[in-house]
Amino acid sequence: MQFQNFPIHIAHADPAMCAGLHAFLAEHGEWRVTLDSRDPGLRSHARVLIADHAGGVELARRHGNRIPVLIVTPLEKEWDVHTAISSGVRGYLLQSCSAQELVKAVRLLLDGECYLSDPIAARVADSLRRSTLTGRQSDVLQLLAEGCCNKQIARRLGIGVGTVKTHVKGVMVKLDAKARTHAVVVAAQRGLITPGRHGAPGTGLGSGMR
Q1: CATH number of 135-209
Q2: Cβ 177 vs Cβ 186: under 8 Å
Q3: What is the DSSP letter of 26?
Q4: pTM of the model
């Protein structure tokens, strides 16, 4: 398929990345490349939107069903990838990607396909091979990481202490952890918890994984 008249809009938060992405894509000459810094209104006319992680997640939630979003980011933890994909992001590239891989990803998104860089695809496949935490287990795990005891977790989430113990046991089994602190360490290594994040009861800290 020929993409010469298709607009690719770059809305990356990092000015240096915007300049680099624009240079790579404009030099290729296969499409029209526009920049958010010059005209953010062109977002709604793009055939592909390219952004950083936070911006890409927001754009995917807003435009994902109509305009495919490609994220270019250094973030590669399981939680980062899961958040992006569950939000509707169609492409995920690491910032260290080559110009050739960038072009390939844009072409595939224009063709209606998805694209994950090889390290990200491997991480997603590995995640699918393991049991996924439920939303409530993710909530409990996050509060464990904040140093809460069972009673505090029960109070924060509005559930019984016995239910908290059940969720903690489930978390430890799924993470193959031998103790609560071990579960927190494993979760941090996998990017399943966010340091310093606090959630109110019922908000569902891990609502995307329910």
Answers
A1: 1.10.10.10
A2: yes
A3: H
A4: 0.65
